[in-house]
Amino acid sequence: MTYFYSKSHVSTLILLIIIVLNIFPNNLRANDTVINPKLELIKKDRKTFSTASIVVDYTAHNRGNIQLAIANNGTFGTLGGSIADPFTGESIPSCIYPKNSDLVYLWVAAIWIGAVVGRDTLVSTGSEDFYENEEFWPEVEPFKPKGGFTYKSIDPNSQFYDEDAYSEQDIICEYMDTLSDPGIVHWDDYDNRQHIPLGVKIYQRSMAWSFSYADDFILFDYQVENIGTRDLKNVYLGIYADGDVWHTSNQNEGHWTDDMVGFYRTHPAPEGCGFIDTINVAYHFDNDGDPVNGAWDEKSPRGAVGARVVRTPAKELKYSYNWWITNYSNSALDFGPRTLDSPEDPYRNFGPRMGSPEGDKNKYYILRHEEFDYDLLFTALDHSQVGYAPPPEQAEDFANGYDVRYLLSFGPFDISPGQKLPVSFAWIGGDDLHPSPNNFDNLFNSAHPQLFYESLNFDNLAANSRWASWVYDNPGVDTDGDGYFGKTRICYLDSTIYGFDTISMDPFLLDTLWDFTSAETTYSEGDNVPDFEGAGPPTAPKIRVIPGASELTIRWNGYYSETTPDVFLNEIDFEGYRVYISRDDRPGSYSVLTSYDVEDYNRYIFKEVTPGNFEWILEDIPFLLDSLKIIFGDNNFNPLLYPRTNPLTYGLIDYYFEPQDYNMSQLNTIDGIRKVYPDATYPGPDRKQWKEKDLVYDYNEPLPKFYEYEYKV
């Protein structure tokens, strides 16, 4: 089979033009038997529901570097079971990261919603570990899509291509909290009553990309609608996660009782200049990364996965982060950090358990209580000075890793009948959190955990969190046209002293006055209007294959590839074409047949990034050769004469140049890519000005002959 790619110098990804995106949803009825080793181990009785007509459907994200099982009941993950990967047919147990690694980072995650309705406090959960509650349910057929999901894609070559898509793989579903039958929804043993629904319907869209900067997260967008007749007051939403970490060959108690959880707030921005990025990720990871004999192997989960809220219905909300350890057999060993009693914040007694919130009222309390728990590894330390209860007796055992859950929640807001409120969050992975296989053994001490904590590398998790927020809301893009493009940062690169100012005569003090002569302004946040859009490689060209005697002619039209601007740059960043051939669809089977590449060059500048620290910086997109001749005032300018070992000094600034890709820019060679109509004239961007004689009609739409290419195999 022959495949074809277009290239972009902005994204490191090369986009496959012929893409087969097969989605095979896996249906699971509520009363089906699910192999669940964790529940079998704890001997926890799960009721069998009589719900023959209600089907919970499963599918999976597989486009990016995270493979994630999705259900249409307010959950993702499979509680230890597996579903078929919609792309490969292979099993996916909950959440695999990185892709195809067999490293699992999730038992189950779910949405929680709590509100005050009249005089009652009600909470609905997609999943709740203690009772195995399932309080959100999809519609029955024919009131839901066949298979339970709708699929859309921005990929023109996908069978699910849709102009309304946001990502390469949009998965859309709906579910509701309207059922109270104890044969379907678990009886509340703590409050001793049947479940009382909130009366909400949730429209869920999850989105995944394969672009190199965006393949380590999945964005979830919810529209929460009040379909009941009562006002929902003081509503709080939460993302609940039981984030067990193991390799598929190690699915046992020893590998889900040694996990860590925490909340990571800020991280130094990669641009330097003292900038700090807001990260705000609730995360989990394996305590030591499971080294084998002091070394990493393919079964070592070295990364972290977590959740970040990127959109809420209002700017001014309260956030909370709580974690707890559920002990099924001994309530005295059930633990979670709890703040002490105070007049402003009375202590709430959970009954015999200090961690797991049983019943609606306790769940609502933990959703709304404005609290940020310390990370699990700090459990053995005394946090009473900041308002927490003393460490439990088992603190040392808990601190070195345990089977733990967390809840990231926010609110309050009100939802009137018929009203919809938007909420978005990102499920984010970050690899290489553990830099060394010996750090946990050598550095961790429950009484002094800071040394081990400081050895963890949050760079990738932080970078992916930032990209998730940027794809949700593109920085520097005025989405709603009101003139606001987002928040900016100014990095002052150079300055001179222009005077002094007397601050005080006794004692005599002077203030130095600086004039900043060089500065760089960049956008750090968007305009608070969602985009759900990322910079990708150029749009794949329209392609067809013409068989001939002992040859195949691959013909394509690159109009869209060469004229579609990059969403972040707002510039056209087309770089070229490559043609690959393979006998099968394995990635390792592809070989490059030929390439066409625009001749352009990257220009590196030697700059001071922090005081006294100079580095070579790549600031701009690649320059065409003609552009460099104009910039440097030399019609014979040759950038290849100035590599890093022999930089160019021009205007007191040092530069060096590198080719962007191969720069194989020749067309119409005998054995290469050629223009089908070499004499065709440039048609211009205005379709109304295109002439009939300059168009081809081989792609279900008229396209300019100027962009028609072919290659013979």
- Counted up, domains total 3
Total helices: the number is 8
Mean pLDDT: 85
Span of the ends, CA to CA:
11 Å
User: How many beta-strand runs?
Assistant: 39
Give the C-alpha Rg. 29 Å
| Class per helix and strand makeup | mainly beta
**Overall shape:** globular
Share in helix: under 10%
Q: What profile does the largest beta sheet have? A: 8 strands, antiparallel
Spatial order of strands in the largest sheet = 13-14-15-16-24-21-20-19
Query: Low-confidence stretches at least 5 residues in length (pLDDT < 50)?
Result: 1-37, 39-51
What fraction of the residues are assigned to beta strands by DSSP?
A: 35-45%
Feature tags:
mainly beta, 3 domains, eight-stranded antiparallel β-sheet, six-stranded antiparallel β-sheet, 8% helix
Q: How would you explain this protein's 3D organization?
A:
The chain is mostly beta strands and 713 residues long. It folds into 3 domains: 29-468, no CATH class; 488-523, no CATH class; 600-659, no CATH class. It is 8% helix and 36% strand. The chain is built from 8 helices and 39 strands. The strands form 10 sheets. An 8-stranded antiparallel β-sheet has the order 13-14-15-16-24-21-20-19, with helices on one face. Strands 6, 11, 12, 17, 22 and 23 form a 6-stranded antiparallel β-sheet that branches. Strands 31, 32, 33, 34 and 35 form a 5-stranded antiparallel β-sheet that branches. A hairpin with a 2-residue loop joins strand 11 (108-117) and strand 12 (120-125). The radius of gyration is 29 Å and the shape is globular. The model is unreliable at 1-37 and 39-51 (pLDDT under 50).
